[in-house]
Design brief:
transmembrane, about 55% helix, porin activity, two-stranded antiparallel ribbon, membrane, single chain, TolC family protein
Length: about 500
């Protein structure tokens, strides 16, 4: 770690005495960022969304594992009159009173390579006729079957390529969300820090102007200062009081915003918690190679994964448009054993063969160009996606390049404004001493005061810009260049 030249800012900015009744907590920038990640609503929302995406992916993986299920209807009782057609064509309404219960146990497995599924089945059926007090059993001791789409779009094959990318994308989005929280918290941190600096400047100026005005009154009596200069100092006192009131209100608003974002709770007395912020003058001396930044961004960012996913999905849609506009067929086949009897055990005694084969198909003959239109639309969308992704990549590269060069420039700005602030503070002290000795005009003293305040604010604003650029680069690359490791 390399420390900048001591400013005269000090490390801490105390709150003014009128706020002393509230509980005060000293916080550094790193502590505020960590608190935001852990307890802010935005951080919790990111964690909840990531948990949702995790279970969605777990559900997707489960679809490709064997599924064991038991289904049926037990009981299935009917008592009614049913329509029965007689041999002569007339209709008779016959009474029925029965129970027709079925239990079916099946084990199924999807086949991603072909888009079909295979199953193993066992079934038992019981029929009770309560009108003649008879019972019959029917069953399938064993059956194996296949459902296989032919010449059709294979959704499972494409899902196995796109869903892992979608899950990886969601993981990186979670990290990005936390880095965005850090960037937002940094902005709010410096909003409050700048307002606290302005508050301290206003308090100091009010006190100094009061003192200088009293000295000027004594000088007027001695004839060492004009009435006009005294009135100018009196106006400075009034302006300093107005600036102090405005600075207090601004600091209150900034403190409320930061406290709300951090989801900070009031402790004990019920008074709102006050933050005493530390000026982050410690900067790590590290360099950022633009090529490394680009490589890490394309390796880590969710946008990079999204580029690949979007192209895959466009290819998938084109494949779907091609295959669903032509011959569609499905093969359904099953082989097994079946039997019937008066007792459940009879079903398993010398069962008979059971076979089933079926091909269902649909062949469009006259579509008036609909199939071609759908295919060409999908092809055009695919080309548009490829072009859009390519443009997004170039824009992404430009963002990385701009952010890397901006960070280095802002680091130099921090050094220069820190030196300028130190010089301005020393110059103001000299000007104040010279005024007390009647060796400086009120106008020159006012100029020194303005330069002092401007240099102090510029130094803090330069720090704000640097740290925001620092966290923005982390967000864009998901890489920590201070420690040279990926952000996990």
């Amino acid at each position: 770690m390399r420390s900048l030249t001591k400013w005269g800012l000090g490390l801490l900015w105390p709150l003014v005495s009128h706020l002393a009744v509230a509980q005060t907590q000293k916080l550094t920038l790193d502590e505020v960022v960590q608190l935001a990640r852990e307890q802010s609503i935005a951080g919790k929302q990111a964690a909840t969304l990531q948990k949702t995406n995790y279970w969605k992916y777990r559900s997707f993986l489960a679809d490709f594992k064997p599924q064991l299920s038991l289904d049926g209807s037990l009981p299935s009782f009917t008592r009614s009159f049913v329509q029965v057609t007689q041999p002569d064509g007339t209709i008779a309404f016959q009474p029925v009173s029965n129970n027709n219960s079925v239990l079916n146990l099946s084990l199924s497995q999807n086949i991603p390579l072909t888009g079909g599924s295979i199953f193993i089945q066992q079934q038992l059926q019981r029929f009770d006729n309560f009108l003649n007090s008879s019972t019959l059993y029917n069953g399938i001791p064993f059956a194996i079957g296949l459902t296989q789409p032919l010449f059709r779009f294979n959704q499972m094959k494409w899902d196995r390529r796109t869903e892992p990318l979608r899950y990886a994308e969601s993981n990186q989005q979670y990290i990005e969300a936390l880095e965005q929280v850090a960037l937002d918290a940094t902005g709010l941190y410096f909003d409050l820090l700048v307002s606290q600096v302005n508050l301290q400047i206003a308090e100091t100026n009010r006190a100094n102007n009061d003192t200088l005005f009293k000295i000027a009154e004594h000088k007027l009596e001695l004839g060492k200062i004009s009435q006009n200069d005294l009135l100018q100092l009196q106006l400075s006192v009034l302006n300093a009081k107005k600036d102090l009131a405005s600075a207090r209100q601004t600091a209150e608003v900034a403190s409320l915003k930061l406290r709300s974002y951090l989801n900070s709770k009031n402790e004990g007395s019920g008074q709102p918690q006050r933050f005493e912020l530390v000026v982050p003058t410690q900067l790590t001396d590290f360099s950022v190679d633009i090529n490394q930044a680009l490589a890490e961004a394309f390796a880590n960012r969710s946008a990079s994964i999204a580029f690949r996913r979007q192209v895959l999905e466009a290819d998938r849609d084109l494949d779907k448009a091609r295959k669903e506009n032509g011959l569609n067929a499905t093969l359904n086949a099953a082989f097994g054993l079946s039997n019937r009897g008066n007792r459940p055990g009879d079903v398993y005694v010398r069962p008979q063969d059971r076979e089933f084969v079926e091909i269902q198909f649909t062949l469009p003959i006259m579509t008036w160009g609909r199939a071609q239109a759908r295919t060409e639309t999908a092809r055009a969308n695919q080309q548009l996606t490829v072009q859009t992704v390519e443009q997004s990549k170039r824009t992404f590269e430009q963002q990385i390049y701009t952010q890397v060069t901006l960070l280095e420039m802002l680091r130099q700005q921090v050094k220069l404004t820190a030196e300028a602030d130190q010089i301005a503070q020393s110059r103001y002290q000299i000007a104040q001493d010279r005024f007390k000795l009647s060796n400086l005009s009120v106008t020159d003293l006012g100029i020194a005061t303005q330069d002092k305040d401007r240099a102090r604010r510029d130094a803090i604003l330069a720090l704000r810009d640097y740290w925001q650029a620092f966290y923005a680069l982390r967000l864009l690359t998901l890489y920590d260049f201070e420690t040279n490791q990926k952000i996990k």
